[in-house]
Write a structure and sequence with these properties.
Layout lengths: L15 H8 L3 H11 L3 H13 L2
Length: 55
Amino acid sequence: GALWGSHPILALDVWEHSYYHDYGPARGDFVSAFFEVVDWDEPSARYEQAVELFE
């Protein structure tokens, strides 16, 4: 479920339907591949925006 009042900066779906077709039971490989392709400038910008909301 969603966390009310939260400000997600990066999300990853790890339910089996999101990785099993390509990775089988190797969820760790799926997570590693995800982190290799993240454009880190975007989560960084989202983090900065979220921090500014609370300053």
